[in-house]
Specification:
This protein is of the alpha/beta class. The chain has 10 helices and 8 strands. The chain has a single domain, classed as Metal-dependent hydrolases (TIM Barrel). Bound molecules: zinc ion. The site of zinc ion has 6 residues, from loops.
Length: 285
């Protein structure tokens, strides 16, 4: 089973996770930029983080045979913090870089006017740079959050086929599907979606335009949930081809719209021995 995790925060995961992911079939991933739990106090802290998503973390992933891509944005949680808003002006400098396959995560957290402004501005940046957008739907008040997100999307110039609506569930999938956007589902250990609910949703909605991710970060989460969905699909009678569509071909098709996915994703990428003179091989070659 080959797996492309379209949303996982590897910065907060260990080398053991990389090893286990590779063994489970993960060969490629997208790491969206997001908040770090601890609020940032200045734009400079974003730029160092963006640079690490473009430099250090792909280097680390390559040690484990996994192709790493990222999405760059001012995240919803910090879009309302006046100390962070200047980041919007610097984003174009990052959106031209090779490893960036979308603008994201953008979207709503508390649905404030400042978040409106940041969302609309970043959808425009995606259009200007020929990139798709990864749009997070809020975890609280999901239905209202999705409706407001879709309103802003309709007013933007970005077409729905360039938008991935993420963190969907049974309550939001119908409206999201009707919008023409791609549909993302985050599978968590004990909240929100789990693999059995995901299989039921796939039965109802089919496998077109559906992406499944672990959204693993520093919270309670599991980077092998993509594989768990693949196994649950096979147990439920889905074919290998349908599993491959959801776990590989759909994310490749969506992020491929950037024109920046690594050319041969299922081949382990050759890792350079050091990054900025630093090796993580700890005495290895
Ligand atoms: Zn995330």
């Amino acid at each position: 089973m080959r797996i492309f995790d379209p949303h996982i925060h590897m910065t907060s995961r260990t080398t053991d996770d990389y090893t286990a992911m590779y063994e489970a079939g993960v060969r490629a991933l997208v790491e969206p930029s997001f908040w770090l739990g601890q609020p940032r106090t200045s734009p400079g802290s974003f730029y160092d983080y963006f640079d690490s998503l473009l430099g250090w973390e792909p280097f680390r992933a390559a040690q484990h045979g996994i192709a790493h891509h990222c999405t760059i944005a001012l995240n919803p949680k910090e879009a309302g913090d006046a100390r962070c808003v200047p980041v919007l002006d610097e984003l174009p400098r990052y959106l031209v870089k090779d490893g960036v396959v979308a603008v994201g995560e953008i979207g709503y957290d508390s649905m404030t006017p400042a978040e409106d402004t940041a969302l609309a501005a970043q959808l425009q940046l995606a259009a200007d740079h020929g990139l798709p957008a990864l749009v997070h739907t809020p975890h609280r008040d999901k239905a209202a959050g999705l409706r407001r997100t879709l309103d802003v999307l309709r007013e933007s110039v970005l077409p729905p086929e360039r938008v991935l609506l993420d963190h969907l569930n049974e309550a939001t999938v119908d409206e999201a599907a009707a919008s023409g956007c791609w549909l993302g589902f985050s599978i968590y250990p004990d909240t929100k979606m789990d693999e059995q609910r995901m299989v039921r949703l796939l039965r109802l909605h089919g496998t077109q335009r559906v992406l499944v991710n672990s959204a693993a970060d520093w919270g309670r989460s599991d980077p092998l949930k993509t594989r768990a969905v693949g196994d649950a699909m096979l147990d439920a009678g889905f074919t290998d081809d349908e599993v491959d569509q959801v776990l590989w071909r759909n994310p490749v098709a969506f992020y491929g719209q950037s024109g920046r996915l690594e050319p041969d994703l299922s081949e382990a990428s050759a890792a350079p021995p050091t990054y900025e003179g630093n090796s993580i091989l700890r005495g290895g070659e």
